């Protein structure tokens, strides 16, 4: 009989502990809501950008999304094809489309990405070059990020289920946009891209690169030095170091984190207010969110470059 009483006592203790935890969370939520409402937009943006800068990102007021900073630390790491293949290890499930072309005695790469970056749906365009005179195929080379003077005017709109969810337009070497809390399969995303080149020679070289990648003339729209296309199903073979099971697990984990983010930050609608609320109330989810899948740091630069 005493074991029954012990069991009932243990159950009662668990109920009391659960009730106390719920009460604590409720109190923390109320306190966090008041703090977020009390702070100005400048204060919240300053705190968020300070945290995001550690991972090379910033908050964009115009589109209420997360973007990359002007000179993020990723610029030091350049690019090689191994980055895309290792992306699932960082919680990133995406489609990628590298376009290689030769211009001004350099090998150039203009690449598009779209997919799920941890807790956020997003897209990217990146411009890179290689000065080496090598007989290796372009996908085996290591590329340096373009300089500010070589930046191009870039535009993309990201579409999901026939609806435009994000637009970005800027002169830069790396154009990005990420929507926290939105979960998407890469195949359900369509990216409409326009690139404005510095001269006709570069535009024609990129056009030939698109044809080599598998795009037809009907897929490409050219006007003056501008080239526009739609990136839906990749023409490039999507190579990964990880199998379908690992990809499935990462997708499910990302979907769960997105649901947690939306439920936890339910009192608010804007990205700035939602993330600020998480910072006050759920710091673990906040840290997971602002990383956007980024685990690497400057110290990994030489290791990644060696694999290129």
* Unreliable parts: 296-308
The gyration radius over C-alpha positions equals 23 Å
Structural class, from secondary structure content? alpha+beta
% residues in beta strands: 25-35%
How much helix, percentage-wise, in residues?
A: 25-40%
- How would you classify the quaternary structure? single chain
- What is the element string, with H for helices and E for strands? HHEEHEEEEEEEEHEEHHHH
Spatial separation of the terminal alpha carbons: 69 Å
Helical stretch tally? 8
The total of beta strands comes to 12
**Biggest beta sheet summary:** 5 strands, antiparallel
User: What does the average pLDDT come to?
Assistant: 83
Principal-axis shape: globular
Annotate the secondary structure layout:
Layout: H1 2-38, H2 41-52, E1 57-60, E2 65-68, H3 81-86, E3 92-103, E4 106-117, E5 120-130, E6 144-145, E7 152-160, E8 163-172, E9 174-180, E10 189-196, H4 200-213, E11 220-223, E12 226-231, H5 244-264, H6 271-281, H7 283-291, H8 301-307
Antiparallel strand pairs: 1-2, 3-4, 4-5, 5-6, 5-9, 7-8, 7-10, 10-12, 11-12
Describe it for me?
This protein is an alpha+beta fold and 308 residues long. Helix content is 38%, strand content 29%. The protein has helices at residues 2-38, 41-52, 81-86, 200-213, 244-264, 271-281, 283-291, 301-307, and strands spanning 57-60, 65-68, 92-103, 106-117, 120-130, 144-145, 152-160, 163-172, 174-180, 189-196, 220-223, 226-231. Strands 3, 4, 5, 6 and 9 form a 5-stranded antiparallel sheet that branches. It has a 5-stranded antiparallel sheet with strand order 8-7-10-12-11, covered by helices on one side. Helix 2 crosses helix 6 and helix 6 (271-281) crosses helix 7 (283-291).
